[in-house]
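Fold this sequence, please.
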Amino acid sequence: MAAQYQFVMRSGPTVGKAYPLDAPEVTIGRDAVNTIVINDSEISRRHARMELRGAAYVIQDLGSTNGTFINGTRISGMQVLNAGDTVSFGQGIVLVYEPVADLNATVLSAKAPQPPTAAQRQTPLPSSAPRPAVTPIPAPRPPVTPPPAPRPAAVPPPVYSGQVPAGPVPMPPEPAPARKKFPVWLIIVIILLVIVCGCIGFFVVIDQLKLWCQVVPFLVPLLGGTCG
């Protein structure tokens, strides 16, 4: 019978190869006795069996080692195949179940179009497409002159170290010399010297005038004398 469906390998040892399904029963496996032989370690010797029921095939796993998957789901019994389903045997063998293309439609679509007749070439076809409206180009606007930028304020020229000044430069007044302060200890020493000198002079005057008993009688016994 003519094949209405086929398997096309998307992943495996022969990518792109088509397997027409033209028998009421199809077996798939690594052994040469199978209808579809795929020589790969992922495939068991008798991996799966297909059976035509009505207008579609059903597939069944035959207890393979790596299992049979439809659209990524592992099957455990009979499963009806729909056009576009992906059938995987193990992890590395992927086949696509799709209908066989109609050869007559392919031949008709491949025919080249007939050239136009002489009457068709002479009679121009009216253009149904409306002509695009012409948009008038606006006149260019006169250029706008920007207002003049304000002049920067005059900056005095920098004074360089070697430049001669235009006039005499006033000198700053000299600071008044700081007054020196006498140290406190020197003042104390001077005061003590004045007191000592005054005492010495005082006693010298008393001794010269013999006024011990009249001025300081309490010192006479201490000096070994007497006032009579």
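The chain is about 20% helix and 20% strand. The longest strand covers residues 5-11.
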